[in-house]
Design a protein that fits this description.
single chain; alpha+beta; Arc Repressor Mutant, subunit A; two-stranded antiparallel sheet; about 10% strand; elongated
Length: about 140
């Protein structure tokens, strides 16, 4: 099974992904005080290699230069592909219904879960109409 990112790598990617401004390593360490630069630096290299992040700019603080990182424009597509790849592997072990159920159950906010269910229903209906000519009930 292909495993793209471990939990620390996901955490760092998520931090950069949701940041309003590009972030450097020291800013990432402030968000994740349990991590060290020796952990974050290899993660940054891996995320760069996977083209999930890119260097946004280089800043100077005192005499220290640092690169700031942001997600790439293609990051959402790459993340989607990673998810699809993992889904294909998991679908060989459990049913699609079980996977979707787990996805909905993982959301602890009932309002968010209901919104996702509604989005899934719309997506499924569009798929049926597009691929099977079904116009609904």
């Amino acid at each position: 099974m292909t495993k793209y990112l471990n939990s620390k790598e996901y955490d760092i990617l998520c931090t950069i992904f949701h940041s309003e401004e590009p972030m450097n390593v020291s800013q990432i360490l402030k968000v994740h005080p349990t991590l060290t630069s020796n952990i974050v630096q290899p993660v940054i290299r891996k995320l760069l290699k996977l083209k999930l992040i890119e260097v946004a700019d280089i800043t100077v603080e005192g005499n220290i230069f640092s690169r700031r990182f942001k997600t790439t424009a293609s990051a959402p597509d790459i993340i989607r592909k990673m998810f699809v790849d993992d889904y294909l592997h998991f679908s060989k072990l459990v049913s699609g219904q079980t996977l979707l159920s787990a996805m909905v159950e993982a959301d602890k906010d009932p309002k968010q879960a209901l919104a996702e269910i509604s989005e899934l229903e719309t997506l499924l209906q569009e798929y049926k109409e597009k691929n099977h000519g079904s116009k609904g009930k």
